[in-house]
Amino acid sequence: MDLGAAPMGAGDYAELLEFDMDMDGFASNWAYCDRVSTYFARMISHNRSDSLLYSNLFSSALNELLETVYRLHAPSGRFACSVARKGASERVTLTVPVDAQTAEFYRSAVKVLNEGDVASRYHSALFTDGPLQPNIGLLELAVDYAARFSIEPTDANAIRLIADLKLEESDT
Q1: What does pTM read for this prediction?
Q2: The CATH number of the domain where 57 resides is what?
Q3: Is residue 21, in this structure, part of any structural domain at all?
Q4: Residue-level pLDDT at 73
Q5: Mean residue pLDDT across the chain
Q6: Which of the pair, 106 or 172, is modelled with greater confidence?
Q7: What angle separates helix 118-126 from helix 100-113, to the nearest 10 degrees?
């Protein structure tokens, strides 16, 4: 596992923290989702107006993203997670190894998240009989945290899932 910070993120976002590891290692233990999200949250929330609240909110949001990746990924490949900041916004970028079916899940999920009326889709998915939809965590983030999602291809074996979060109001 490589854990470190890069000097600059995409666009005007300043990279705060990044890790990458083999997907087999990440997917070997569900607890890694909580451990990574807790660590990242503590590291990036120190200068927020209410660092404890921000840490809790960010940890919950990142944990949902990591749990989605834990459940839906290709059998092998490199997994990366980075957090960058621009003002009051955090950008979480997940590079996820995928096969054709998993790539289609992420493309479809992001399309649904950007189509509007996400709240009713989330509530419908939440209160349906049977197993929960695999995109339930992403729907929750869009509704409860006003997360904005986009997706980028990296190569035939991975996608880049980007979640923009604004968990506190800006002073400006």
Answers
A1: 0.88
A2: 3.30.565
A3: yes
A4: 93
A5: 89
A6: 106
A7: 120
